[in-house]
Amino acid sequence: MAETIEKGSISINTENIFPIIKKFLYSDHEIFLRELVSNAVDATQKLKKLASMGEFTGELGDLTIEVSFDKKKKTITVSDRGIGMTGEEIKKYINQIAFSGATEFIEKFKDKADAKDIIGKFGLGFYSAFMVSDRVVLHSRSYKAMETEGARWECDGSTEFELTSAPKDQRGTDVILHVNEEAEEFLDEFRLKGILEKYCKFLPVEIKFGTKEERVEDGVDKDGKPAYKNITRDRIINNPSPLWAKSPKDITDEDYLKFYKELYPFAEDPLFWIHLNVDYPFNLTGVLYFPKVKNDFEMNKNKIQLYSRQVFITDEVKDVVPDFLMLLHGVLDSPDIPLNVSRSYLQSDSNVKKISQHITKKVADKLQEMFKKDRRDFEKKWDDINIFVKYGMISDEKFYERAKDFALLKNTQKKYYTFEEYREYVKDLQTDKEKHVIYLYASDIGKQHGFIETANQKAYDVIVFDGVLDSHFVNTLEQKLDKVQFRRVDSDTIDKLIVKDEKVESVLSQADQDKLKGIFEKAISNQSMTVTIESLAPDYLPVTVTMSEWARRMKDMARTGGGGMYSFMGAMPDQYAVSINSNHKVAQKILQEENEEQQTRLAKQAYDLALLSQGMLTGPDLTNFIKRSVDLVS
Question: Do 482 and 619 belong together in one domain?
């Protein structure tokens, strides 16, 4: 029978800290397992470090940490073969709640190399065990050679404890939780396995959780075919040497892709990746993958996992990763990211800002390197990665400055240009009389095909801006690029989009122009349509329906989340300009028609054709147009 060494009260500043721990400190009860397994890992790594320093000369042996449970006894046990503790150390590190049980450890080894790696966190995290337990037993034996007997500590969640001597065959610590009634959900294999896979998947010491059956080859059968047998093996729940903890020079492309599948089993292969490895002025490792992002990119956020010394913390990384890179996938690991005591959320800190800035720079450097190394391959990837680049250029001034040399503009001929290249390409033909270089763009090639054709007939070039962020990106570029203005190709007649000094004269007298305007106003009879008579080339469309560039941008930005004025404009009724080409033979045919009803009918037909080209003719108007077309052909 174990000899009672000591009974007493835990030395704490508040009379009862346990309810605080249970209710407020750890809001998510499942993290008790993360804390206890992390402590076991710390204890194991301390022993390995002592051995490497010559402070421990015994056999390390099997250092696997084991998590087990007994449903009948209602217990969960976390066992390690790490540094262990004496009775005196238990009194100091557990009873005194030093918030870091490594104070003395640091003092002793602070002048040795890599001392920071042996700083444990065995302290407050241990008490998360009381969130799910009526009683916690800690059975430990120190690594020190003279310590041949173990020590057993027990506490029921009050400030009273019992410390006894208790035989223990092996070095290390067992933490035994007697699970309370409210937490019996954790006495389940799949529940515990899920928690371990979530928080402990990449811890640096092997963690065993039960066993598993495996089918392996066992010679050949009587027909000479491979024979198999089932064997039972330990189920190791984690990968102790994750890819991000290795040197990039030791990793192949296949390794990166395999690790990506480990993180995201059902995802398409990524486009490329960036390996982060920083040790000054902060510690940061990780791998960030560029996935193929669809236009519903909000659905793709929260895919980066944050770790601290290979312990999973969160996938809410908005303070560490710039917003425009939240669409990336992968892992970040940094012991320098400040967390609150329960590690449940990030705290504001200068390191966080530095890390965020560094990640931004590394991404920009990688893209620049790819662009310079293989421009053609970069162009192939552009349609998939441009959403990252544009988002970054809109939201981050420093990223814009880095990205402006490799960001591309794609035209309707699927040719790619840098900003400088494109300006040189179009400036001679597309400079207006105010000396602005006009960039024409299309947001929907199919719907705007007729307008694109008209621009191309004048040898004008048209950029494709059909992405979810492009309405915002256009505004950013217009502010940044000197003497450049953007015009959507269907926002006005071509001669008004790029105004030159030359002017086309109308073949109609002013009286005929006024008469033509009246006929169309009667035929249209729609207050949202403003009719104007334009003197355009005879081969230009007879009627064009457009919305002004400014109004379209307001509405586009309202649709993609712009607030304030954009929301107000988005709620306003649409206003369109109807431009009648006075030099087109259709205009002349309408005027030559003697029957007033037939004049109106022809005007309505020409107007409906313009609506049809914009996808704006629907419902009864479309039905009437078809009937009228049949009549006219007949």
Answer: no
Tokens of 496: 């008004």
Rounded distance between C-alpha atoms, residue 411 and residue 408, angstroms? 10
Q: What is the CATH number of the domain that holds 248?
A: 3.30.230.80
Range of the domain at 161: 4-209
251/347 Cα distance (integer angstroms): 33
Average confidence (pLDDT) per 10 residues, the chain, 634 residues: 59 50 62 91 94 90 96 96 91 64 44 41 68 93 80 86 90 96 94 93 94 83 82 92 92 95 89 89 90 62 81 81 87 78 58 84 93 95 91 93 96 96 95 93 90 91 92 92 92 85 81 90 84 85 83 72 51 78 90 88 89 83 87 78
* Phi and psi angles of residue 599, each rounded to the nearest 5 degrees, phi first: -60, -50
Residues 19 and 113 in one domain: yes
Q: Are residues 61 and 155 in the same domain?
A: yes
Q: Using alpha carbons, select from 394, 412, 393, 411 the residue that is nearest to residue 403.
A: 393
The pTM score is 0.74
Q: Cα torsion for 80, 86, 87, 88, to the nearest 10°?
A: -130
CB under 8 Å to 285, separation ≥6 — which residues?
244, 245, 276, 277, 278, 332, 333, 334
Q: Residue 175: which of 128, 121, 210 has the closest Cα?
A: 128
User: Does residue 519 share a domain with residue 414?
Assistant: no
Residue 291 lies in a domain: yes
Strand partners, 204: none
Residue 223 belongs to some domain of the structure: no
Asked if residues 296 and 361 have their Cβ atoms less than 8 Å apart, the reply is no
| Within-domain flag for 476 | yes
Helix/strand/coil percent split, the chain, to 5 = 40, 20, 35
Q: Domain tally for the chain?
A: 4
* Residues 167/149, Cβ–Cβ less than 8 Å: yes
